[in-house]
Amino acid sequence: MTRRFGLAPSAGDFEALAQAAFARIGEPFAAHLDGVTVHVEEFAEAETLRALGLEDPFELTGLYHGRPMDEESVWSAGELPPRITLYRQPLLAEWCETPVTLEDLVAHVVVHEVGHHFGLSDEDMHALEESAR
């Protein structure tokens, strides 16, 4: 018997899933996400992995780049806008290895990285994720 599999979700598919996750984030957080952008890359760069103390590129599914809101000041002008990077291959691997849907997995990573944008603790991030469901 021949079994056919479809193509893996594209970077564009991941961006759409991330935007859907953003749309489910409630107030007061949603009002402060306008400048946050989402990017999709296949894997984190070697330099990023080294900076985080990671050796295996499959260990990193997402990363927040930017200054958390609780550390912003008028003196931090001129910096790049905050962004979230999703790493497609590690996310695909985790999706294949777990019963979690890709939509839920991407939402989990997006919400976690949004938490970093707000300077939230892991506990606070779990509460935010629950409110986004």
Automatic annotation (TrEMBL):
Pfam families: Zincin_1. InterPro entries: Zincin_1, Zincin_1_sf. It comes from the Bacteria. Signal peptide: none annotated. This is Metallopeptidase family protein.
